[in-house]
Each structure stands twice: as C-alpha cells, then as structure tokens.
Amino acid sequence: MNDKQSLAQDLIAGKIGRRDFIMRALALGVSLSGIEAILQSCGTSNSSSSNTTTLKFANWASAESATRDNINKALQDFQNQNNAKITNIGIPFDQVLQQLTTMTNGGNPPDVMELSGNWPYALGGAGALEPLDSYISPSWKSDSFPNSFEVGSYKGKVYAAPFSITPHGFWYSKDLMTSAGLDPAKPPKTTDELNQMMATLRAKLPADAYPIGIDISKTEYALVGFWPWIWTFGGNPMVDDGKGNVTINWADSGTVAAFQWLQDAVNKKWTPPDQAIKAERELMANGKIAFKLDGPYLTGIFANTNPALNTVDAVNSKFGVTTTPMGPGLSSPVTAADIHNLGMSAQAQNKQLAWKLIDFLTTSDSVITKFLIPEGGVLPHKSYNVTGGKYAKNYADTISQSFINNVIPTMRPPAYGPRYSTAASFVVSALQEIAGGANVKQRLTQLTNEVKTVYA
Fold first, then answer.
1. 3-state SS of 352-391?
2. pLDDT, tens digit, for every residue of 247-262?
C-alpha cells in the first residue's frame, strides 16, 4: 500500500479528520481534484447533497470471525437494493466507544453504528448522535419489548434503536444439577434456594468446577453482569430522575448485601476468582460451571466452544434458562437491559439513507436470517418472535421461549448517562477489591464518595 492509499484508509477508519487529510494529501502532491475524488469515494465529500450513496457502518460484528461473514452478506443485499456503497468498519467490542469518540472528534464518524450499554448515552449526551424520535414509527414503538427503546434514550430523546434484545437470563446446567442430586426441573427461584444449591454443588463438584460464574474482571461489562444481583438484594445505588440528575449511595443496605454475597461466594469457592465472562462461558460449555447470568446468544457461543453443543437441541438438552432468583423483599425478578442497538451520527450527510440502513438492519429478511438469528439475540420487533410471527419457528425452543416470555419482561436499564462509564471504572475497582477481601461497608462508602466526584 502506498502513502496515498494509506492516507485514505486512515480517513475511512476515522484516525484523521478531513482537515488533516487535506493538508497531508497536499504535502504528498495530490491535486485538489484528486483530494475531492478521494473524499467522495470515502463518503466524506464536502457536499451535503442528499444524493450521497455511500454510508459508513461501524460495528463489532465485522471484527469477530463468528459473525463477520454473516453481517457482510446482509450488507451486500442492502447495497444491491439501494444502489449504495457501505464502508464496513469492524471495531473490537472493547474498543468501540473509544474509536467512535475519536472518529467523531476527528470529523469523520460512521453514519450508522452498532452500540451497547452506556454508549448511546455517552455519545448522545455529547451531541454525537442524531435523535431518532422523528424516524421511529409509532407501530414499531407499540411492537417493541418493554424498555427496549428506553435503553437508548437520554433526557427524553431516543438516540439508539433496538437491534438485538439480549438481556441476561439465569442459565443452569442440567447435568451438574443432576450430578449433585438436585432436580434440574426446579432451578432456584430465590437467593436462599440459590445459596443452598450452591453449597450442595460445592460439596459434590470437583475442585476445578464451580457452582456459579460471576465476572470479577476489571471491565465495564463486569458491572453489567452484576447489576441484576445488586437489584436482587434490594440495592439501588444510582438512580437517574430522567433529567440527567443521579442520586448516588453505593453503601445502601441492599448494595452492601449484594457485595457481601459476592465476597462470600469467592471465599466459599462458589465462583472462580479473577475470571472474565469469556473464560466463564468456556468453563460452562465444558461442564465446569452450574449457574450463570448471560444472554440468549450463549447458545451460539456454546456451539462454537464445544462440538457436542453444536445444535440448538443439544444446548436445550443440557441447559435451561429462567429469571434471576428473587432476593429478600422483592415481588418480582429483575435483570439488566443489556441489548445491542443502532445509532445515527449527528454528522451523517444523508440521514434518510442512514435511517434506511437502520430500518433494513432491523426488518430485512436478509439480516434476520443471515445475521441476527445465527447470532442468537431476540429480534427487535416483538411480533417477529412470538407465536404466529414470521420467524417464530426459530425461537420455538425452550430456552428462547424463556427469554421471550420470562426474562425480557424483567429487564430494566441501569442509571446510564454520559458520566456512567467513568463511574463504572470506580465501581469495578471496588468490585475486584471486595472480591479480594476488602471490608465491604468501608469500601462501598469510599466508592460512594468516588462516584459522587464524577457527577459533581
């Protein structure tokens, strides 16, 4: 690749902005007409004409070998149908927010982007995303799962549309329960039952197997996995009033109880120490973890991890899914609304075409059959999944039905916002230290003060 080609690639990837590109291109001897041609080919022409036919789509699916081919096939169909060119930008999941922020600040963001968790709030709150309220039809709003649009909304505006509904359900291994003398048809309904079963499993399982997997890694995603437990034990350490004002108390009694339970689980060897979610998934796929909160896509992950679980029927024969066990004082189970969604850049030159891509990604038979169903998430239009729906046969297995009918109705978003990711870095540090033996109440009191400085 020569210097001019490399420069164009840097522009497409958002590593440099338009101004830097022009200055460096002139230094390399590129003519003004040549610069304009490159900008147009990259979808970054100075013209704001609505006839622009190039869109940049950033997503992590194209960065992962298991999903790359499927999303590429679906995007090819959009190009053919709309006489449009899609520049597909694959970004590793743990780098998405950082790279989208860099590309946006450089003046060359993707037109459409795959998002998750707090990212719509961080980008939307910074003015990087286009509000989607005027694009979303009332019929889609009424045909959506509870809280699926709320997850991408900030201060009353929708910044991200649901793409794949993937909240964490309570997975359990039928084989490990049976081997410990537990009834696999009766997974734990309460935290008391869960603790009793984990004590039994610990006594019966070999040393290299564990009753439960809890992500204790120093990643923001570890907090996504722990939110359901915080709420389950009655904690509510961060409350957003819907206007961006957050009440903070990480030392409330319920939150203290949840973190004490975590510390006890580590001390009793109920959960493996210092394991991130990927490692725990591999352990569960190979019969080494009995219980785990995780998304519906775990079926596909099991298939890629263990050849004996390479079909939906095989996974259903070995595992089941139910709601998070209820803690003391709760009247219903709860889980975090961890979903994949789609946003549009506020700088997109052709917003109608960008929305057309979002609509395509959420309704097209090509995307649904070639990407979303194989990926394992529940489709964002509720009617597509349920009995009688166009794709209902793909969600007829017991685990999928449990997610649709039992788990998804219990999902709710954490107190996401532009400052949440910074606060989360303090929280996961405290989570690790408490798992390692730190005094729970003292550490959570310290955490409250740390998080308050973020929102001050």
1. HHHHHHHHHHHHCHHHHHHHHHHHCCECCCHHHHCCCCCC
2. 999 999 999 999 999 9
